[in-house]
Amino acid sequence: RSGAAMSVLPKIALTAAGYLAIERAAETKSEFFDGEMFAMAGTTKNHARIVMNFSRELSARLKGRTCEPFATGLRIKVEANGLYAYPDLVVVCGEQRFEDALLDTLLNPTVIVEVLSETTERSHRVKKFDLYRALPSLQEYVIVSQSEPRVEQFLRQPDGEWNLCITTDPTAFVNLTSLEYEIPFAEIYERVEFPVAEPMGGEPLRQVQG
């Protein structure tokens, strides 16, 4: 009624068990934190190419080793804070620990790789990294830009601190220290096209290949 005070229903937080029940039956993926589900956005051509390139390099180099890469689709859980997430790539070294017998939620990733988009840039750089580094198993967190040739690596030090290394040189190598493996920067960005800013005079955008 006009002028009547409206009652506000209290927000009911979803439990982790409730999230998993919904997620395992859903056709689309959602992440979960602090009682809320967050639908995952669609991907782009650049995003898909970078994930494929990185996955190809890791699969080839880690074949026969105790470290195994998993591409988009494998959910991870951070037990310390309850985050459930779907990184673009994860690598787990040694024994693989899962939450339950369904083997769809990994507990102990060694390396996490995320490909940035404009909508996820801040969340991956700040909030997600804060949550991910609560994983005792995590040794390296890699962020790859899809809008410019730039790879950021956060490497855990023996004292628990994290060092940041940024690579932008197309002739350089990205040294994955925790895996004792170097990936050519150019291989990560093979066939990836970056938009060039419109010049003075209003000429249309062109694409350059990374």
- Rg value: 20 Å
- Please write the string of helix (H) and strand (E) elements: HEEHEEEEEEHEEEEEHEE
Which residues form runs of ≥5 with pLDDT under 50? 1-7, 204-210
Describe the largest sheet.
Answer: 6 strands, mixed
Write down the overall geometry.
globular
Can you walk through the features of this model?
It contains 4 helices and 15 strands. It is α+β, with helices and mostly antiparallel strands and 210 residues long. The strands form 5 sheets. It has a 6-stranded mixed sheet, with helices on both faces. A 3-stranded mixed sheet has the order 5-4-7, with no helix packed on it. Strands 1-2 form a two-stranded antiparallel ribbon. The chain is globular and about 50 Å long. The N and C termini lie far apart (61 Å).
